[in-house]
């Protein structure tokens, strides 16, 4: 594609004021989220429901830890997907291959029995989703110039696609799970991802050449070494599992440790690289407090897939005019608000233009609002079965959503702007590492949740998030100085 073609592509406004190429990434991400959240909507209850109910009969604490570890692994695997994109294949090709791996994972969950299906399926879905996540975001970033004021609005629209899928997935898999069984729900997730793969296969050629570029190619002489390291890593994991070092009851702790090590290593590699200049290095330092705030936010937000799922199963009044809605439907409430409000937020950011709040301010408010959402559980603490009205959870998840829209799409956008050119996709992976760490922590925290004594749990975690947000709010000026003109 010539320079003039690239310029024309980036100035295109056919998709709700955004470049038409956005529709292709919008579509594959929508179906990936349909399959991801559809499967995750029934995963926790599949793990802890009794065998007579079609589940695997694990304890709620172990089941929650597995779900948190799996969710964290999804975001942790963005490192691998980002590295392969930046050094070997380019973002667009990795995105396409990742979609194929995700399909295979959902098929395994649907067809393989018991723990075998869970093990094979979750590993494949985690690897594929991690590769798709970092690279879909990077490809979206390639559609805009750095100073294009449509950028945040475009990411908000992209986020709308994510949540269209996230809304429909739990509803439809929940219906199949409750009427036909868990494996039918997992099968529907596989069908959804297959549709996304087919749709993307036809549209991928319309993406700009920049999406296929390998920014920092790995010398061919180092390919054998990479292969040896990959095989050694797989062998080490297998040995640790066989020796009992890696177990179902400590998975979340292992993912937390692995994510912290990976994040520290990634920051060290980027900051010490000779390929970046002083301005780029300063921007990476400016990203660090955003990273920490993001971890605090996601450690609370992702509990809608762990603690809130248990809460909804045991405490929430899910009776609607005589119809008891499936537990998984609760996870479709947040996407509804995202669908409604993402357009509103996109319009507000577009209308404000250069007058909108800076990214650190948005992050600080997001963390504080998320903390406030946890405090909203306190009036219902200590209740019995069916004691929490459905409307209360709807209201709390509305607050979740407002906090999310201040951090997640904004975080994706600012990461692509702060990223040094040689580490473009890998910086996106760093943002996802903050989600990985927060998600793994959300699973680890399940062990401290006691339905008989909820006040300390919700008040302490809510208070920590508010303190983190206040700390960033008080540090806005020095953070902006480090960001060197990126707001």
How would you sum up this structure, described in words?
The protein has 487 residues and is mainly alpha-helical. It has a single domain (13-214, 223-483), classed as Growth Hormone, Chain: A. 72% of the residues lie in helices and 1% in strands. It has helices at 3-10, 22-48, 60-76, 78-89, 91-111, 114-141, 151-179, 182-203, 223-242, 251-272, 278-301, 307-314, 333-352, 359-375, 390-418, 424-444, 455-473, 476-483; strands at residues 319-320, 323-324. A two-stranded antiparallel ribbon has the order 1-2. A hairpin with a 2-residue loop joins strand 1 and strand 2 (323-324). 53% of the residues are buried. The chain crosses the membrane at residues 34-51, 63-85, 94-116, 122-144, 156-176, 182-202, 223-246, 252-272, 284-301, 321-349, 361-382, 388-407, 428-449, 455-474. It is a multi-pass membrane protein. It holds the Pfam family PTR2.
Count of alpha/pi helices: 18
Indicate the multimeric state: single chain
**What can be said about the biggest beta sheet?**
2 strands, antiparallel
Q: How are helices and strands ordered from N to C? A: HHHHHHHHHHHHEEHHHHHH
Radius of gyration: 21 Å
Strand content: under 5%
Domain tally? 1
**Strands, count:** 2
Low-confidence parts: 1-6
Derived from helix and strand composition plus strand pairing, the structural class reads: mainly alpha
| Helical coverage, percent range | over 70%
Strand order of the largest sheet: 1-2
Global outline: globular
Q: Within the CATH hierarchy, at the fold level, what is the topology?
A: Growth Hormone, Chain: A
């Amino acid at each position: 594609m010539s320079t003039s073609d690239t310029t024309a592509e980036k100035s295109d406004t056919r998709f709700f004021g955004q470049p038409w190429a956005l529709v292709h990434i919008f579509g594959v991400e929508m179906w990936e989220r349909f399959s991801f959240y559809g499967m995750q909507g029934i995963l926790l209850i599949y793990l802890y429901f009794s065998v007579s109910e079609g589940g695997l009969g694990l304890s709620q604490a172990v089941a929650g830890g597995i779900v948190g570890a799996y969710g964290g692994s999804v975001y942790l695997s963005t490192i691998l997907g980002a590295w392969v994109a930046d050094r070997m294949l380019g973002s667009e090709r990795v995105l396409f291959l990742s979609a194929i791996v995700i399909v295979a994972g959902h098929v395994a969950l649907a067809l393989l029995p018991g723990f075998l299906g869970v093990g094979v399926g979750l590993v494949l879905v985690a690897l594929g989703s991690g590769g798709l996540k970092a690279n879909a975001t990077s490809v979206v970033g390639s559609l805009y110039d750095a100073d294009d004021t449509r950028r945040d609005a475009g990411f908000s629209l992209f986020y709308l696609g994510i949540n269209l899928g996230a809304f429909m997935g739990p509803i439809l898999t929940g219906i199949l799970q409750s009427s036909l069984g868990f494996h039918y729900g997992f099968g529907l997730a596989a069908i959804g991802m297959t549709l996304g793969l087919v749709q993307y296969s036809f549209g991928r050629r319309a993406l700009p050449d920049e999406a296929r570029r390998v920014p920092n190619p790995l010398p061919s002489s180092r390919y054998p070494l990479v292969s040896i390291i990959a095989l050694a890593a797989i062998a080490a994991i297998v040995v640790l599992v066989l020796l009992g070092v890696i177990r179902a009851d400590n998975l979340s702790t292992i993912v937390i440790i692995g994510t912290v090590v990976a994040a520290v290593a990634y920051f060290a590699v980027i900051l010490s690289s000779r390929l970046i200049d002083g301005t780029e290095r300063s921007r990476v330092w400016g990203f660090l407090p955003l990273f920490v705030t993001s971890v605090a936010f996601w450690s609370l937000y992702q509990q809608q897939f762990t603690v809130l799922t248990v809460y909804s199963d045991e405490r929430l009044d899910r009776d609607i005019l005589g119809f008891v809605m499936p537990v998984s439907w609760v996870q479709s409430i947040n996407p509804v608000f995202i669908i409604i409000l993402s357009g509103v937020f996109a319009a507000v950011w577009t209308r404000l233009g250069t007058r909108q709040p800076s990214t650190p301010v948005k992050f600080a408010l997001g963390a504080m609002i998320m903390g406030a959402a946890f405090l909203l559980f306190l009036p219902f603490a200590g209740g019995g079965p069916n004691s929490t009205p459905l409307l209360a959870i709807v209201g709390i998840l509305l607050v979740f959503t407002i906090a999310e829209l201040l951090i997640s799409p904004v975080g994706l956008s600012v990461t692509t702007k702060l990223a040094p050119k040689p580490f473009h996709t890998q910086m996106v992976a760093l943002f996802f590492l903050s989600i990985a760490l927060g998600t793994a922590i959300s699973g680890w925290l399940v062990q401290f949740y006691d339905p008989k004594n909820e006040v300390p749990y919700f008040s302490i975690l809510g208070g920590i998030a508010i303190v983190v947000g206040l700390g960033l709010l008080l540090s806005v000026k020095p953070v902006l100085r480090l960001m060197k003109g990126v707001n």
